[in-house]
Design brief:
With about 375 residues, this protein is α+β, with helices and mostly antiparallel strands. It has one domain: Cytochrome-c3 Hydrogenase, chain B, CATH 1.10.645. It has helices at about 60-65, 75-80, 85-100, 105-135, 140-160, 180-205, 210-215, 220-225, 235, 245, 270-290, 345-350, 350-355, 360-370, 375-380, and strands spanning about 5-10, 20-25, 40-45, 45-55, 170, 175, 310-320, 320-330, 340.
Length: about 375
């Protein structure tokens, strides 16, 4: 059993009345925890009075392992961070290496990075929306979302031979150019994306049961979002207009015309629907990138044993979960002296203890899913 009673004790509430408090373990292997997360929930009846997320069940010491590998050998480790968005983890790390070593990336490689990572954003958001739908009992929506995700995973498999951990973005560029026919496949997918997302919007977000389960649940104010370091759809669902693709523009993003969707209420419904609207925008970015991209090299001439001068560098990108940053320190050797990952999933998860109190145990599951945690990145 993964939902277990930890203790039962008699406590005093704010009015001085004696009540029975139930302390329940949710996880760490419960399907509704979206990974190996353990939540210690304090209940009065079915109302949550306190919720403490307990992490560390997927800790693998990736930041420490990086000190014993060359800069190129670290790339596959980054795949295991956000394993729902491995392209992003590759890119954030590689940008930090390139800043540290003074590597200039060819223009075509920058376009390929944008195309693959915007497709990865859609795939990640489909995972998040589908899981949130399953949390509310909408199993049909789960299947609709995963059908879209599967199309993208198949394109990635054709591109680099893998469905989950890609090792595609490398320091200086990408590992392979596009295979024959891939552009047409990608364009066809993007052209049909709008209709699929509109159908999902009507099916799930227009449903009265969805609105009843998600609207007004887990409300996060813009002030709390900023104060707790939230980013990505979690912050933008509360109306925080912050997206690194525009506010600290990198790569070739300034060349694209796209909007940053924002929510109003800051509840579970807004956080999930912002991800749907972001998927629309990602599709438009991919289409623009396919039109603008010119032939050319996809890799800079980089040694297998990159040995940057002694120093430090930090770079960040807008991943599907928010501001993903990598800090590197070099001592002049071919191995990083230190690597530190700024995980948006870690920062967003901390909000659970703020959002859960006052809601029911079933709402706790919906709130956790709306934060879209990936515990490979949380624990590292």
């Amino acid at each position: 059993m993964t939902l277990t009673v930890e203790s039962r004790q008699r406590v005093t509430d704010a009015r001085g009345s004696a009540i029975d408090e139930l302390v329940v373990n949710v996880g760490p292997s419960h399907p509704s925890t979206h990974g190996v997360c353990r939540v210690i929930a304090h209940l009065e009846g079915e109302i949550v009075t306190k919720a403490d997320p307990v992490i560390g069940y997927l800790h693998r010491g990736i930041e420490k392992m990086a000190e014993n590998r060359t800069y190129l050998q670290v790339v596959p480790l980054t795949d295991r961070l956000d394993y729902v968005g491995s392209m992003y983890a590759n890119w954030a790390y590689c940008r930090s290496v390139e800043r540290l070593a003074g590597i200039t990336v060819p223009e075509r490689a920058e376009y390929l990075r944008v195309i693959t990572c915007e497709l990865q954003r859609i795939a990640s958001h489909m995972m998040a929306i589908g899981s949130s739908a399953a949390d509310t009992g909408a199993s049909t929506m789960f299947l609709y979302a995963f059908e879209v995700r599967e199309r993208i995973i198949e394109m990635f498999e054709e591109l680099c031979g893998s469905r989950l951990t890609y090792n595609y973005v490398r320091p200086g560029g990408v590992s392979f150019d596009l295979p024959e026919g891939w552009v047409d496949l990608c364009r066809t997918f993007c052209e049909g994306l709008t209709d699929k997302l509109a159908e999902m919007d009507r099916l799930f977000f227009g449903n009265v049961i969805t609105r009843g389960r998600m609207k007004g649940v887990g409300v996060l104010s813009a002030e709390d979002a900023v104060g707790w370091g939230a980013s990505g759809p979690v912050a933008r669902g509360s109306g925080v207009d912050w997206d690194l693709r525009k506010d600290d523009a990198y790569s070739v993003y300034p060349r694209f015309d796209f909007e940053v969707p924002l929510g109003d209420a800051g509840d579970c419904y807004d956080r999930a629907r912002v991800r749907l609207f972001e998927s629309y925008e990602s599709g438009t970015i991919v289409m623009q990138a396919l039109e603008q991209m010119e032939p050319g090299p996809v890799n800079a001439p980089v040694s297998r044993l990159i040995a940057p001068r002694a120093g430090e560098a930090y770079d960040h990108i807008e991943s599907a979960r928010g501001s993903l940053g990598v800090y590197l320190v070099s001592d002049g050797s071919p191995r990083p002296y230190r690597m530190k990952v700024r995980s948006p999933a870690f920062c967003n998860l901390a909000l659970l203890k703020v959002l859960a109190p006052g809601h029911t145990l079933s709402d706790l599951v919906v709130i956790l899913g709306s934060l879209d945690p990936v515990f490979g990145e949380v624990d590292r």
